[in-house]
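Appendix B. Raw example, untouched.
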Amino acid sequence: MTANLIRDDIEFGAYMASTEANHKLIPAGAYADEVADYLLNGLQLTGAKLPWRKTHDLIRFRGGEVTLWSGMNGHGKSLALGQAAAGFVCQRERVCIASFEMRPVVTLARMTRQTTGARQPDRDSVVELHEIWSDWLWLYDQQGQVTGERILSVMRYAAQELQVKHFILDSLMKCGLAEDDYTGQKLFIDALCTIARDTGMHIHLVAHSRKARDETQAPGKMDVKGSGSITDQVDNVVIWWRNKAKENAIQAGEPIDSTKPDALMVIDKQRNGEFEGKVAFWFEKDSMQYLETSHQQPVDMLRAEFWG
């Protein structure tokens, strides 16, 4: 089976221009029933779930929003986002991945391990999985730098032609923007937010955190590289942090506390949700899955029961 690839030779010119935002002046009375439901029933969690049961009441990913995934280099944010993407597909939400640092075959191989929960699933299982993915998962086949205009047009193409619900852009610094081009970054993030709002697609953007002298502490939204307007404009900020001190102790053969997590997901901003805080995870190398507890076994995500 071949992966669903959005080729770079497609004519994207028709998708370059932004559509006019659908701004409307609406009388307050039109929202009466919706406001009453909100006040009587509280915030209703809607949107796609992450592949971990304990996060389902903490954060969701709704259409029309932008989520920033950040963390220090080498702390597993892209790996965690790959597992999240596999989970979105399991919920029958179409996903497109534009990774400019990793070839599609490597991305798919990692997601295959994460979805099946196995290091080397048999060939029949791989073929069966890709047959399922054929209607739900797309990849933009280009590595290296890309212009901001081109990736914005690819996003509109994915939303309009493929009905993609989640677009993963990895990463911001591969979009032709210099680290000190704060105005360019602000305009680009504003364009992402406009596309999300116009199309109803959820955009997941990867951006690195600044290098820290001490990697033993998880960074926050203020540590994201580039303009401060990046975190101001997006709807959600999710930080991923690996427990390097624990990893170093294991490599040195030193005793460890197994109750200490291997990683933390820090939800540092959630505009349309109430939870902000840290969620602990443990990593299983063979499946490349992040797990909810230290004793949990890898999950076959296609057959998992926690999507209902």
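End of appendix B.
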